[in-house]
Design brief:
- The protein is built from 21 helices and two strands.
- The chain has 489 residues and is an all-alpha fold.
- A hairpin with a 4-residue loop joins strand 1 and strand 2.
- The two termini are 25 Å apart.
Length: 489
């Protein structure tokens, strides 16, 4: 029984094996570029196992602690792709910590391993263990440069993360204490069996739900739990900033969606309540993120606040799931498609930033002046990604926003969609300010901006998918709907 169950978590086990292999090889080889190749190979092997499981029936393993379903497999593939692109883009950056490349690649793989488990976890205990496994790796990676800003970023991320972890654990303890279960489905059965009066007379259970939202809110960087984002994004190594903005957020939304849909999806009034709570948080988050981003002069801090705003858009999908009360999977599939679109778009932007900032040794937006002349392809790629983040055609961002907003309108959240559209207009100001600086201002020098083939490959793949998701989204929408359908059944 255990052997057959181990076969169902081969994507995670193979990735863990390659992470250990990277650490061992680092002790014996001098050509550290080999470590990057081994890491990419590990991600490919893990992705291969994941793809082989796509058509398999849904099953719970390890006494209901982990699920193998298309919802989890979708996020596993997304996380593996994100990690692979980050490792490719890191080839132009690892010279800043040349002695510790083995640790760097191993930590990226281990954090991916933890996030993959997060997406599949169906028990409060397994969720917490997976979340901590990924978080500890990210705390170390954020401080990897060991300079003042990077050390500050890692310390702030660790301290705020520890508080958020304690809040989350306290919420889990309250839910367990009042239901007697840690299994998500078992908790749902207990809650559904309670009369409305009994549930309302249990403030501790409602407090536990609120604490869960607060704890997970840190992971997805929504207001008011976003205070760590700008400083951590600025101080962390740029590839890790990209990884945090995409992979960590995707894993966070995966676990939030599973917990709230499965555990608190019924009774209907409870689902409507947390759906409306997420709707209010969504409106506040996107507004705060976009308004504060306007005054930023550092491009990594700008993308930090942009990431907060994007979390607000993604929470429109969570709100839709709650307001739909399990009647359809439109909210889930819209959220999944938006996450995929956001992942390739934000990674593409950060990969271009890595190439440019390495050459000019600055993250200030004004220093990007004239990049359209010095590095036209990099500037064009960054422009395409900024257009997609704004939500304009013919990019993935437009389709993603139409998809997620249409679901919200269908379930009575027109007011939230109006706020989202207004915020998209606000975001155009600071996104296109970067475009203006790159294309219309005079360059400070005439020097070209070189980059490695690995970085150019990663950037090309991101831009290709930004266009594919925007021009021919049908196939990708079908994948998102299949993942959501299995999850909701």
């Amino acid at each position: 029984m255990i052997i057959s169950e181990l076969q169902l978590i081969m994507p995670e086990l193979s990735l863990l094996g390659f992470a250990l292999l990277v650490i061992l090889l680092d002790l014996f080889i001098k050509q550290k570029k080999v470590l990057a190749g081994v890491s990419i190979a590990g991600l490919i092997v893990s992705a291969g196992f994941t793809l082989l499981m796509w058509g398999a029936p849904t099953v719970d393993i390890f006494y209901g602690m982990v699920a193998v379903d298309r919802f989890a497999l979708f996020f596993k593939l997304l996380l593996l792709v994100a990690a692979g692109l980050v490792i490719l883009a890191s080839q132009d950056y690892v010279s800043k910590f040349e002695r510790f490349q083995g640790e760097y690649y191993a930590l990226v793989l281990l954090s991916t391993f933890g996030m993959m488990l997060m997406a599949a976890a169906t028990d409060l205990i397994s969720i917490y263990v997976a979340l901590e496994l990924s978080s500890i790796s990210l705390y170390v990676l954020a401080s990897f440069l060991k300079d003042q800003k990077s050390t500050e970023a890692g310390l702030k991320y660790l301290l705020v993360g520890a508080v958020a972890s304690a809040v989350l654990l306290y919420g889990m303890a309250l839910v367990f204490g009042l239901t007697g279960h840690t299994c998500l489905i078992c908790i749902a059965d207990v809650i559904q069996g309670l009369p409305i009066a009994g549930l309302l007379e249990s403030p501790a259970l409602l407090l536990g739900i609120i604490l869960l939202i607060a704890g997970f809110g840190f992971k997805i960087a929504c207001v008011p739990f976003q205070m760590w984002v700008p400083d951590v994004y600025e101080g962390a190594p740029t590839p890790i900033t990209a990884y945090l903005s995409v992979a960590s957020k995707a894993a966070g939304f995966a676990v939030v969606l599973r917990v709230f849909f499965v555990t608190f999806g019924a009774p209907v009034w409870l689902s409507l309540d947390w759906g409306m709570l997420f709707a209010v948080l969504s409106a506040i988050t996107m507004t705060v993120g976009n308004v504060v981003a306007i005054v930023q002069t550092n491009i990594k801090r700008l993308f930090g606040y942009s990431s907060i705003a994007q979390a607000g858009y993604l929470m429109v999908g969570l709100a839709t799931v709650g307001m739909a009360a399990g009647t359809d999977a439109l909210g889930q599939s819209g959220l999944l498609f938006f996450l995929a679109s956001y992942a390739v778009t934000n990674l593409g932007a950060f990969i271009a930033i890595i190439a440019i900032s390495n050459r000019i040794d600055s993250d200030m937006i004004d220093d990007y002046a004239g990049m359209g002349k010095r590095a036209p392809l990099l500037a064009l790629a960054l422009t395409l990604c900024l257009v997609s983040l704004t939500g304009l055609p013919p990019t993935a961002g437009l389709i993603a926003k139409i998809y997620i907003f249409s679901g919200a309108i269908h379930h009575g959240l027109l007011w939230l969609v109006i706020i989202g559209v207004i915020n998209s207009c606000i975001s155009a100001y600071y996104y296109f300010r970067v475009v203006k600086v790159m294309w219309l201002e005079a360059p400070a020098s005439e020097g070209k901006v070189p980059s490695s083939w690995a970085l150019r490959t990663a950037l090309f793949l991101c831009c290709l998918f930004v266009l594919l998701l925007g021009v021919v989204p049908g196939c990708f929408i079908g994948i998102a709907e299949a993942a959501a359908r299995i999850f909701g059944s």
